[in-house]
Amino acid sequence: MATMAATRGEHAIAARTTTDRALLRAFLERDRLYAAYALCDLDDREYPRTRWAAAYDDADVVAVGMEYSGLTPQPLFMMGDNAGIAMILRDVLRPRAAYLAAKTEAMPAVETLYRVDPGPQMVRMWIDRARFRPYPADVRRLLPSEIGELNRLYQLGFASWLPSSAIAEGVYFGMRAGGKLIAAAGTHVISRQARLAVVGNVLTQADHRGRGFATAVTGAVTAELLQTCDHVVLNVRADNPPALQAYRRLGYAEHIRFEERLVHRIASPWPDFAGPLRRLFSSRKETPRQ
After folding, report:
1. Where is 147: in which H helix or E strand?
2. Coil, helix or strand for 110?
3. Are strands 253-265 and 231-237 parallel, antiparallel or unpaired?
4. pLDDT at 161
5. Is residue 30 within a helix (H) or strand (E), and if so which, with residue range?
6. What's the rounded Cα separation, in Å, for the pair 77 and 103?
7. How far apart are the C-alpha atoms of 78 and 187, rounded to whole Å?
């Protein structure tokens, strides 16, 4: 288990790995709409692909972080106090590159250890049953056997080809014109335990845009999810006003603007100096870094 401590005033902040899902869930529920992906990743289906860390100020959890395995760069989620986030990134979760999701006010802590690529802010939007406004249209739920058409619409290459399980385990709706799939929307993740879901993969073929098709398929996915979920969320780039307006028509509201950036760990400026020191003290018993 990796552990490190720093002081904040008279208190010591310690960061370490954790597998305590109850502790993580309680902290993430403080802002469940922002932490939607992370809450969903606590479910049994996704949890084995994740690695978690928590930072403590004495006995109080002040920050959590999660990295998701299987992708390079991997998704990295941070939430909480800046001093705690800095400790987690300094000694527990240390990817060389990652797709980071963090609140804007956390970026100074991130930038002490990572170079951050430029990009627009993301808008986290949310909806519940009371807010939802149906958008009647000729849409149909997609079947796993239609995964080939869906991938062709998304123009995904072989390396990022969606499996049929994405449709079987998620919720996907599409619209057709002349028998051809021209618009679709689906889900990134669904948590039946948290009663929460994330909508994504919304796309309309270029020559059919501007006709409300994205709103229609997103509305159909949202309506289906709200039968079992208390909240549904989605992300939109802040520099995409048409998409923001399309989702507002369904009743989605802005919750928070945050950063979703590619980050690269800053290398030590003295690599030749650090190496001999590690060898010199290698015989001592130390907490291993993970």
Report:
1. helix 147-154
2. helix
3. unpaired
4. 83
5. none
6. 10
7. 22
Q: Which two tokens stand for residue 180?
A: 């051809």
Residue 184 counted as domain residue = yes
Q: Which two tokens stand for residue 290?
A: 């993970």
Mean pLDDT of 190-211: 95
Total domains in the chain come to: 2
Tokens linked to 165: 């399980």
Question: Is 217 inside any structural domain?
Answer: yes
pLDDT tens per residue, range 161-191: 899 999 999 999 999 999 999 999 999 999 9
**Domain shared by 254 and 160, yes or no:** yes
User: Reduced to 3 states, what is the DSSP secondary structure of residue 280?
Assistant: helix
> What is the DSSP track for 229-263?
-SEEEEEEETT-HHHHHHHHHHT-EEEEEEEEEEE
Q: Is the pLDDT of residue 271 over 80?
A: no
pLDDT, greater one: 177 or 270: 177
